[in-house]
Design goal:
The protein is α+β, with helices and mostly antiparallel strands. Helices cover about 20% and strands about 45% of the residues. A hairpin with a 7-residue loop joins strand 1 and strand 2. The radius of gyration is 26 Å and the shape is globular.
Length: about 425
């Protein structure tokens, strides 16, 4: 086994994983092969060290000879630590900067350093590792600014066996396509799609325990128990809840109320090259056993997704629907009358992208996406005549292109047309990267 060749293979895998269009089944197979090679490599290196440094005969019981023996052992141990440290520590992250120019109100044009994420990890051994991601939004964080600093993830992961792993801590839920893989190089368009922002509140993280299993047939499953949402955070003003009902009451691991927990299950199939289909279910209590009018309130979110990568084409579709249960009493109270909790919210999108040109690291991928979203479909528990009017679905066409300078660096341009509200039409420009 050649150490340099194995390291080169690992670097090649990282670049391949960053490339737009690689399938989950390809990545899983390559990761398994490299993991087996690394374990064999470590065994060979240990055997080589044993040959180079055979066990010494017992030293004579004299202070003069005993001291050099201890010193030599310390030198060998320090060298081993210095050799292992670069492989044990990893740095990663991503960034995106963009500009939005409303078509009918140029004075509202905005440019911002939207996100900068610094990630770091540590591998304790072959099976146990730690990872964290610290995110800064909109460049500046202070009491008077609209920036935010937060841990997107902070967890320990352990491989129970080769095809079963566990996460413990604050981690992203594996629901939909974007919540786990939301780096700007991995999705089309300057902005994250509306469905996986308003209905699935990307980036959605919870504290708890999660399991992931895979098999050689391409089946991948996730399940876990985590913290849930907090209905007592429901705003009395509707702007935030119309933007994202779940985003308005998520806890993000900040002193999260944990009296009412949640459960999730996800199933994916990657057994056909270039094809993925899957779905997920999230169910959790949101009352948190507080003294509120709806002590048994809960939420359910279901989602189905599919992707087909064939030739130069990349086709994606996703649908998601959420339901709040037992919120009638809350809506009838003073806290819910001004801004009631909806019974349902839903959305779906379909997208087609085509690799039009590629030369070396450069590539040009135009795309088109259509989506429909409604964050408040109906209400219950309100007196007759006091229920707010149900808005029509928000319908959006997004068309543009991603131009890759490198699989990990992308320039973006797109235009968005809101079919039921032309005042929101806009032109977007962006640059993104991940490492």
């Amino acid at each position: 086994m050649n150490y340099k060749r194995t390291c080169t293979a690992i670097a090649a895998l990282c670049v391949a994983h960053a490339s737009y269009g690689q399938t989950n089944s390809d990545i899983t197979a390559e990761m398994k092969q490299l993991r087996d090679e690394l374990r064999q490599l470590r065994l060979e290196m240990q055997a080589l060290k044993t040959q180079q440094h055979p066990k010494a005969d017992p030293a004579p019981a004299t202070p003069v000879l005993a001291e050099p023996v201890v010193a030599a052992s310390a030198v060998v141990q320090t060298a081993a630590v210095q050799e292992a440290a670069p492989n044990a520590i990893s740095l990663f992250g991503y960034g995106e900067l963009n500009m939005t120019r409303p078509r009918h109100n140029v004075a509202e044009s905005v440019a911002t350093a939207r996100r900068g994420v610094l990630g770091f990890g540590y591998r304790f051994n072959d099976r146990t590792r730690f990872a964290a991601e610290l995110e800064i939004e909109n460049a500046v964080v202070s009491a008077g600014d609209r920036g935010e600093a937060a841990f997107e993830q902070l967890y320990v992961e352990h491989d129970i066996q080769d095809q079963l792993s566990a996460k413990m801590g604050l981690f992203l839920l594996p629901i939909g396509y974007m919540n786990e893989t939301h780096e700007p190089t991995r999705y089309m368009g300057v902005q994250r799609n509306l469905v996986e922002t308003a209905i699935i509140p990307t980036t959605w993280r919870e504290m708890g325990l999660g399991l992931r299993g895979t098999n050689d047939n391409g089946v991948r499953w996730d399940a876990g128990v985590v913290t849930s949402f907090d209905l007592t955070k429901w705003p009395t003003e509707s702007a935030q809840t119309k933007e994202s009902p779940l985003g308005a009451i998520h806890q993000e691991g900040q002193l999260a109320k944990a009296a009412s927990l949640a459960y999730y299950g996800v199933l994916n199939y990657d057994g056909i090259a270039g094809f993925n289909i899957g779905g997920s279910l999230f169910q959790g209590g949101i009352a948190q056993k507080q003294t509120i009018p709806s002590p048994h309130a809960s939420v359910t979110l279901t989602e189905i997704h599919t992707k087909w990568q064939v030739g130069a084409w990349d086709l994606v579709a996703l649908t998601a629907q959420g339901r709040f249960h037992d919120v009638s009493a809350f809506n009838a109270s003073a806290g819910g009358l001004n801004n009631p909790v909806p019974d349902q919210f839903r959305g779906w999108y379909t997208q087609a992208a085509y690799r039009l040109w590629r030369q070396g690291d450069y590539s040009l991928i135009p795309f088109a996406r259509y989506e429909r979203v409604n964050t408040a479909l109906s209400f219950s528990g309100l007196p007759v005549g006091l229920a707010p009017a149900v808005d029509p679905d928000t319908r959006v066409w997004t068309m543009g292109a991603n131009f890759y300078l490198h699989p990990q660096v992308v320039l973006k341009l797109d235009t968005q047309r809101y079919l039921n509200n032309s005042a929101l039409d806009r032109l977007n420009l962006g640059v993104g990267f991940h490492y």
